[in-house]
Amino acid sequence: MADTGQHHQHQQPQQTYERYMGGSPEAERRICERLAAELMRVQEKNRRASRAADLERALHAKAALGVENARLRFHDDLPEALRGGFAQPGASYPATVRFSHASGVRQADGAPDLRGIAVRVAVSAEESHDLLATNHPVSHARDAREFVAFAKAMAGATTRVRKAVALFVKLPLAVGPSTAARMRRNVRAGARREVTSLAAETYWSRSAILWCEAGPVRYLLRPHGHGPTAKATRGRHDPQYLRRDLETRLARQDLTFDLCVQRYVDERRTPVEDGSVEWRESVAPALPVATLTVPSQDLDTAGARAASRRVETMGFNPWFTTDDFRPLGNLNRARKAAYEASAAHRHGLRFVTGEPLRNRALGIPAEAAFRLLNRYVPWHRLPLAASLLNLVFLRKALRRRNLIDTDTHEAPPKTMPVPAPPDERLRTARSYDGSYNDLSRPAMGAVGAPFGRNLEPVHRPDLFDIPNPVTVSRQLLHRDTFLPATSLNVLAAAWIQFQVHDWVNHRRHKPGGKCVEVPLPPGGTWQNTPGGPPERVMRFAENEGIELPGERPPILFANAASHWWDGSEVYGENEQTAKYLREPDGGAKLRLDEGHLPLGPNGVPLTGFAESWWMGLSAMHTLFAREHNAVCDALRHAYPSMSQESVYHTARLVVSALIAKIHTVEWTPAVLATEAIDLGLHTNWEGPPGSWLQKLGLWLLESHSLTGIPHTLPDHHTAPYSLTEEFVTVYRMHPLIPDDFELREHHFGQRLETLGFRDIQGVAAEAALRKTGLADTLYSFGIAHPGAITLHNFPRALQQFERDGEIIDLSVVDLVRTRRRGVPRYNDFREGLHKQRLRRFEDLSQDPETVARLKDVYRSVDEIDTVVGLFAENPPHGFGFSDTAFRVFILMATRRLQSDRFLTVDFRPEIYTPLGIDWVQKGGMKSVLLRHCPDLAGLLPRGASAFAPWRNVQDRVSP
């Protein structure tokens, strides 16, 4: 067919006919993500309104036909200008076809509605093309905002009255009266005509796509060779009459449609961005290019019914195509995120947590009241009930404003092949690298995913060395006298390092590679390598950053560990390591050498993460490797038919969840020893206690807290899940580590020996543990106090610490890393977490000597390092660290649980086994200790966690 003479228009560059909502592809992407979330809420509302057991598609919920044996064949005389990609003369491809009703709620075929068709053309195993069209030439919506506003207004509208309210009340409130009127006209024009046969309808794409070199086109599917039937007498009474018509037709003949394209002319008459404008055939003729054939068949066979069920599980998306046929226009660009979200939600891969109207309505004034109150009275000085509610609203504010997405997203959207469904094994087991925890976004939280942010990063290379971090360390961090935390034991110090090694790991350049150089104060020298010469700079390996496009500063870093709470410090962060740590021949248990971790060639035990190794870590890793094996034995005994692989993965789930529970309801309340925190954290895991008044308050203001997080759905809130650089910063708790340790025998309290940290660090750690024994080691740590998290208490042993062939001052490294990663300085840090700024040094500390040193080191309060400010801050009564650090904690502590599928929707007996759920729910740190060291039973504290000081056995030998 000849060219129409508009070839010069078809060659116009993309930007002449595409405009991005919000002014840029990235701004539009963020809008589309929010709209996609709204559509998932529409699905939920439609499900509730229709009382359906399962979620339906957000739109086109009811299918009239689904077949897999259709075929699309391009015409032999396909015009030269329209040839490209899979569109070639005579080319024929198998196709899947679904006819549907446009509503998101199933209703009788005679109800006023639009009808649709979805076609998937399979070109090869790697290439397919989804074509979506509706039996009205224009959309009721100009753009995605209007489209979603209409869907929200109509959600749950299953009766005439509700539909009228939606169209004449809700819709005008959402988009304005004039826009609502235009949308109603378009909807009526499409839906008021009674449809007698879906085979006799014409279906228009309504949005444009690129057609190779031909430029933008809209396409339509027009019936070929079969006209409308006479009006069916049973149409008004049979809710499935359109399905019956298709069954009858296909029983005797093929259904055929001409695929036609209309080519772009100009922005006024054939706009790309406005879906509400019809491309009239008088302006853009419909050129037939291919024929779609649904072959004659009996739809009432087992094979046809099975094919129909498979079609119903499919998620169609116009972006399942190639770049040559890329969708165009805002409606289409929004479809990618919206259709992905809707399909994932329908298949149980993505979830929506709604907020009841009462919580939204009452929460606004309550939050404002607490915000005003906190100007005069901090949350921790309020009565218990008020302080708990205050924390609820503080967490809400933090979730809204302090979760910053650092992922690199595609903007504008890109075409893609149809994604393969997740491996079924990943539905019931954690992956080795943390991928597929969120089955709809496999890379979220996996090894290599970037650290997120709670605050906008600040990149100031001019301040990297101001003030000199070595001076800061010597004046404000160095431990002159050990300051103990008398409410805790050293197991608490070992535990948090055990946890941090599961959560975070910034990859470093190898020794000799890219490094950081910190100039020393005048007259100072440093030995950077064992046996190396004294130098005037302190040197250590730089972190490996993620390269960012454009002029963006290098402040994004990947996590070399999984972000999830998955026990990777025990199991490893990849499949190779995990399998190597297991017993030979695919056994379910972890390898142990007479109850101890086997040694690697470097003398350090083989485990998931063995950096910065010392005796406390060796004890923790040994204890939980034994715990894994105990779970394996229990599972094999209870479920003899379970495979070794299933036993291993189930035991990993159980141990990881038990670790998360211990940290949530035991370690943290021990460190933040207040009634409000203890109650709040137990509520996180178990739900609120039996007080009807407290439950009523939560029902009115925050109903999500009425059950423990394990009984809720995953919720990432305002950003994809990740741990953050600020989270890393507040967990810099090195002052917990003492410089020397007294080891004692637990039966008689006899002192065995006193060792310095260097004597139980690195290759010496496991030898010391085996010599002392696990029980005596745990007892020795249980009766000893860790250091307080405060200034002037950084372990001396860590200020000259050998690691990877380097000698480093870890206190200097902590300061330098925080600055270079763009974490704001302390005053900006606390303001960003909704605390008042400091005006003078005396606002930070009441100790005159500390204030004097701060003034000597820093020129102003705005210059104070974040780590220094967190250590200097006077914490609330009972707190082991500052209220500012606590704000990151209260945000991220629940997030680590709430985002994790295996600690929410899949924390259930079907996944963990009934034994596994019972093991977690009834277990704790004390049960772990006693399972593997039963002799310690009489030494554990009564009425307190295992991280509180243990009973000290009196040494009978001492005078």
Give the helix/strand layout:
Blueprint: H1 7-10, H2 25-50, E1 63-74, E2 92-101, E3 115-122, E4 128-134, H3 144-154, H4 160-175, H5 177-191, E5 203-204, E6 209-210, E7 216-223, H6 241-252, E8 255-263, E9 287-294, H7 302-313, H8 330-346, H9 357-373, H10 384-401, H11 469-477, H12 490-503, E10 515-519, E11 526-527, E12 534-535, E13 537-541, H13 568-571, H14 575-580, H15 615-638, H16 644-671, H17 675-686, H18 692-701, H19 725-730, E14 740-744, E15 751-756, H20 763-772, H21 774-783, E16 801-803, E17 806-808, H22 810-820, H23 826-832, H24 848-857, H25 866-872, H26 883-898, H27 909-922, H28 925-932
Antiparallel strand pairs: 1-2, 1-9, 2-3, 3-4, 5-7, 6-7, 7-8, 8-9, 10-13, 11-12, 14-15, 16-17
Helix pairs in contact: 2-3, 2-8, 3-4, 4-5, 10-17, 10-26, 11-22, 11-24, 12-15, 12-16, 15-16, 15-20, 15-21, 15-28, 16-17, 16-27
